[in-house]
Amino acid sequence: MACNAGPMRRLTSLLVLKLEQRGAATRLLARRRQSDYASKAAQALVASNTIMSPEQSLYRESETRNLLSHFGGGHIHLEKDENSGIARLLIEHEGKKNAFSGSMILQLADHVAELSKWKDGRAVIIRGANGDFCTGADLNFVQKIATPVLGAKMSIFMGSVLAKLHQLPLITVAHVEGYALGGGAELLSACDFRAVSTTANIGFVHGRLGVSPGWGGGTHLTQLVGWRTALRLMASAQVLDANECLRLGLADFVFSNDSEVSAWFEQFTKTSAQSVRAAKRIVLNAQECDYSESLNRERDVFAELWGGQRHLQALQKLAGSK
């Protein structure tokens, strides 16, 4: 578990503050028949130019889920191999370069929640279909939620999803081909490792649309490449090739074919899934806790494994080889 509170509390506070600054507002939803409220709520939110009062707009995940569910298209597939402990997430939105729709965001949230409970998992590989990784949010979806309130709700929800992805007890690997732009770049930055194709083009291009990263990508990018480089990449909206990503520390490995990726990934299969998960916990604690607390938690992880079945089996095997 993380030592610090997640981003949701801070983002919710910012949302309420923004609304208070805009003053008291009229109610967004008129009285509607109960039978058709759920299906029309999203249309009413999108169509209105008014701003809800702070009391109405306090973030509720269930309401945001309902809103996102009205914007379909595309799919995110999850496959888990119980024998190897390796899962695969495939982002697929044909004709949209795998841009996220609202329903795809919900699917990713559900898959991440499922993976967080997978006791035998060691790693998850995230990849886009048809030669591209992901190009952020689908333009049609974005245009229909282009208000401060709806944008904040979407940002809180997706930011929380990527924070949970980052904190999974599994190793997360982004298998990047083709375009990874905007929110797609934010997604790969939330992963532990990035294997990047020679065909890849990666960019935090939010500035070209007059916005900034809203899913936590700015924070993750800064942690990966340092604040100066992160500032330059976000402020310039520069698109990088694979070699430049490797030079800056945004990529961990550059490949030209899938067999090279498979060979590189084998390093994570040499030890038990239990040991891999322990290593991930230790690193997360070091990132999120102060020094003393991180040391305490590292000892706790060690105590869970020492003298366990796999430890004793390894000792027995080692003794037998002498």
From TrEMBL:
<keyword id="KW-0963">Cytoplasm</keyword>
<dbReference type="InterPro" id="IPR001753">
    <property type="entry name" value="Enoyl-CoA_hydra/iso"/>
</dbReference>
<dbReference type="Pfam" id="PF00378">
    <property type="entry name" value="ECH_1"/>
</dbReference>
<comment type="similarity">
    <text>Belongs to the enoyl-CoA hydratase/isomerase family.</text>
</comment>
<protein>
    <recommendedName>
        <fullName>Ethylmalonyl-CoA decarboxylase</fullName>
        <ecNumber>4.1.1.94</ecNumber>
    </recommendedName>
</protein>
<dbReference type="InterPro" id="IPR018376">
    <property type="entry name" value="Enoyl-CoA_hyd/isom_CS"/>
</dbReference>
<dbReference type="InterPro" id="IPR029045">
    <property type="entry name" value="ClpP/crotonase-like_dom_sf"/>
</dbReference>
<dbReference type="GO" id="GO:0004492">
    <property type="term" value="F:methyl/ethyl malonyl-CoA decarboxylase activity"/>
</dbReference>
<comment type="function">
    <text>Decarboxylates ethylmalonyl-CoA, a potentially toxic metabolite, to form butyryl-CoA, suggesting it might be involved in metabolite proofreading. Acts preferentially on (S)-ethylmalonyl-CoA but also has some activity on the (R)-isomer. Also has methylmalonyl-CoA decarboxylase activity at lower level.</text>
</comment>
<keyword id="KW-0456">Lyase</keyword>
<dbReference type="GO" id="GO:0005829">
    <property type="term" value="C:cytosol"/>
</dbReference>
<dbReference type="GO" id="GO:0006635">
    <property type="term" value="P:fatty acid beta-oxidation"/>
</dbReference>
